Amino acid sequence: MDLLWLYAQALVDGLLAGVMYSLVALGFVLIFKASGVLNFAQGAMVFMAGLTFVSLMELGLHPALAGLATVAVMVALALAVERVVLRPLVNQPPIILFMATIGLTFIVEGATLSVWGSTPKLLELGDPYAAFEVGELYIVYSEFYAAIAVAALVIALALFFNKTRIGRALRAVADDHQAALSVGIPLTTIWVVVWSVAGVVALVAGIVWGGRLGVQFSLALLALKALPVLILGGFTSIPGAIVGGLLVGAGEKLAEVYMSETFGLGGVENFFPYLMAMLFLMVRPQGLFGERIIERV
Prior knowledge:
This protein is an all-alpha fold. The protein is built from eleven helices and two strands; from the N terminus they run H-H-H-H-E-E-H-H-H-H-H-H-H. Helix 1 (3-35) crosses helix 6.
């Protein structure tokens, strides 16, 4: 494979990986839009959903039933979070809510490991090496299908936010909590709905990433990989999560190939997304699709 095809392969691999980064970032965006909370526990929710799903399958449940049961578990988590964490902290500063989600991270991780154990589990979604060729490019079937699934999920979420009554209420809550309450929108119900939807997104992310990496504790660290995606795309934009993920995925793979071929340096993709994020914070801190904050004094 000549150098041009090598870069083209890196770009394709990066875009496919970026779609999966976007999937984790979507959970952050959903919760931040409705409550203004940066949910640090989203990675733990991905781990919980993925491990619950594969463990229920090991107990003999059909994948569809295991998926429905996992959705029920994530809705139960949403109810518990609203009642125990969010409701007592209404009108508290954002940093307090952020610290609460850090505590929630360890609670969710510990409870998941206590129930299902810490042994890594395999989640087979077909042959991980099966691929089709386009010219000299190799595209893995599992990653290609994952990209299609994420695209379908994004379209469904966009329709949910823009076309349904609950979606419009979610956007109203995101704009102004007090104004939403004044017109009769139940804030606690909205929080339960949005955390439940984020739980479903976490399940899809857990299945996709579990099929790629295995279902193990490292899935909880995906939250750290989603942060550069959020910074690039904006914390309140669903399209921004997708574009940010594609930029991060493509950028890290292309940078890895360039630095390896030009200077013989490896491991660049591990830190390059954070370098991109730092540069964006200097130039456009609200992200590509975020709203510019204007303060009047």
